[in-house]
Specification:
The chain has one domain. Helix content is about 45%, strand content about 10%. Strands 2-1-5 form a three-stranded parallel beta sheet, sandwiched between helices. A two-stranded antiparallel sheet has the order 3-4. The N and C termini lie far apart (about 65 Å). Bound molecules: zinc ion. Zinc ion binds next to helix 2.
Length: about 210
């Protein structure tokens, strides 16, 4: 076999295993144990967020936990949608009680799930909106007709500076003010809505969306 052919085969093999890794993640992000993207043991060890974060805003894990930080970073920059779906699943199973009370409140009409939108530029670079992927995982395990994902209700107008880069709380709130717009206000009249984001810090983004919706 010639050198070039060998090289080509190796490149193809590498490409193939990379594709498999994306489609069927084989190792835990925390302990490298085979089988799942996050194993039960590592999930049990995750540091929980102190609740409630802000009024009407709830977080599941503490971002200071190194494994959570790694997971979010991987979800955002390494094209790992399966990781987002897993996080969505964890979010759903951890907030069952809260979801039950919203279910009573919505009285049989589907609860709208609204992922926090990202700008078109970011979507182009990343290929997907990470909050949307989490939202999909969140809806996956629910009873049919309990949730309806609404990706087109609200959109991001301006390309704001990423919230995480701003240290000062007031500056953060100012940065996000007026960044979103509702497309068709009528469709949300009288609806129960859950907004899903990957990370919340001062609640600026979520607060702004809650106000608007
Ligand atoms: Zn693990």
């Amino acid at each position: 076999m010639g050198e070039t052919t060998k090289k080509t085969i190796n490149t193809i093999k590498r490409g193939f295993s990379l594709i498999l890794e994306i489609l069927f993640p084989s190792k835990c992000l925390g302990c490298r144990k085979g089988g799942q993207i996050l194993c039960e043991n590592c999930i049990d060890g995750l540091r929980l967020a102190e609740r409630p974060t802000e009024e009407k805003i709830m977080a599941l894990y503490d971002y200071r936990d190194p494994l959570i930080k790694k997971a979010i970073w991987k979800l955002k920059y390494y094209h790992s949608p399966y990781l987002g779906r897993k996080l969505g699943e964890l979010l759903y199973s951890s907030f069952l009680e809260e979801i039950q009370s919203l279910r009573m409140f919505s009285a049989g009409s589907p609860i709208y799930i609204v992922p926090v939108p990202i700008s078109n530029d970011k979507r182009k670079v990343r290929g997907y909106n990470q909050s949307e992927i989490i939202a999909k995982g969140f809806c996956n395990f629910a009873d049919t007709n309990l949730f309806t994902i609404k990706k087109d209700i609200i959109y991001k107008k301006a390309n704001t500076v990423p919230q995480a880069r701003i240290e000062n709380r007031n500056k953060r709130l100012k940065n996000i003010k007026g960044a979103f717009e509702i497309k068709d206000a009528e469709q949300i009249m009288g609806k129960t809505i859950i907004i899903i984001d990957d990370v919340t810090t001062t609640g600026g983004t979520l607060g702004e969306m809650i106000k608007l919706l």
